[in-house]
Design goal:
It comes from Syphacia muris. This protein is mostly helical. The protein contains four helices and no strands. It has one domain. It is about 80% helix and about 0% strand.
Length: about 100
């Protein structure tokens, strides 16, 4: 239930941010996040969740809008993101699937 609430909050925040003429920034952020996860996978990182958290720290720099979106990606979507990367889906396609592009 917590995950569902977090996912709904994530999507609401993302849509609000996206439709406030920030869509390109949000999409670019998502693509950078996906690229970072791909890099962590290529390096054989032991914990992709920790790698995702570190990416959030680096990419959001404490931005009050982006940070919760990023943390939501790690908590609610990381298994799907990993699966899509393993299926060689592009960052653009993945970000569209999580409604950030």
């Amino acid at each position: 239930m917590k995950t569902l609430i977090l996912l709904v909050a994530l999507l609401c925040s993302a849509y609000a941010y996206r439709y406030n003429n920030k869509g390109e920034k949000l999409c670019n952020f998502c693509k950078a996040f996906i690229g970072g996860i791909e890099t962590a996978m290529d390096k054989g990182e032991a914990s992709l969740e920790k790698a995702g958290d570190k990416l959030c720290d680096e990419l959001t720099a404490g931005n009050v809008l982006l940070d919760p979106i990023c943390r939501g990606l790690v908590e609610a979507e990381l298994p799907n993101i990993i699966s899509w990367i393993e299926k060689n889906e592009s960052a653009d396609t993945i970000c569209k699937q999580v409604h950030l592009c």
